[in-house]
Amino acid sequence: MTRLAKSLRGFGLWRRSGPDEALAILGDPNQMGTNGNDWWWLGQLYQELGRFRNAERVYRTHSILIHQLVHRELGGVYEALDEYDKAREAYEYFVEYWNEADPELQPMVEEARQAIARLTQ
Predict the structure, then answer these.
(1) In a shared domain, residues 37 and 73
(2) FRET partner for 23 with CA separation of 20 to 30 A, picked from 4, 37, 58, 69?
(3) Separation between Cα atoms, residue 14 and residue 60, nearest integer Å
């Protein structure tokens, strides 16, 4: 089975059976492919499990594969870890790069702006 097939299987398990079964596949670096989706799913999975340090590691290590959207997720991770300066910085990076995103994506940008305001008070 190819790495892509294994990561898709892990994603399917996550959505059907829950995160614990999926972590056995998605959490194994030897099973992961080289595209950003694999790492994105793993970061999301760690967040769902409340394993924020693991999510941070995945996002920071593989952000080049995932792109600027990862900074929105890092903002939430850092908030959960009570690291508010890092959270604000991540949200600011996201807003800077997505400020002129398509209209259907603007709600995410507005949420990040609100988070920046909340963290600045």
Answers:
(1) no
(2) 69
(3) 22
Judge if 72 and 43 occupy the same domain. Answer: no
Domain with 120 in it: 67-121
**Is residue 57, in this structure, part of any structural domain at all?**
no
Number of domains in the chain: 2
Region label for 120, one of left (φ > 0), alpha (ψ between -120 and 50) or beta (otherwise): alpha
Cβ atoms < 10 Å from Cβ of 11: 20
CA distance 115 to 9: 34
User: Does 121 lie in the same domain as 87?
Assistant: yes
Which residues have a Cβ under 8 Å from the Cβ of 117 and sit 6 or more positions away?
A: none
Taking only the tens place, the pLDDT of each residue in 5-61 is: 777 777 787 778 878 777 877 776 655 666 677 788 888 889 988 999 999 988 888
Would you list the DSSP string of 66-120?
H-THHHHHHHHHHHHTT-HHHHHHHHHHHHHHHTT--GGGHHHHHHHHHHHHHHH
Band of pLDDT at residue 85, cut at 50, 70 and 90: very high
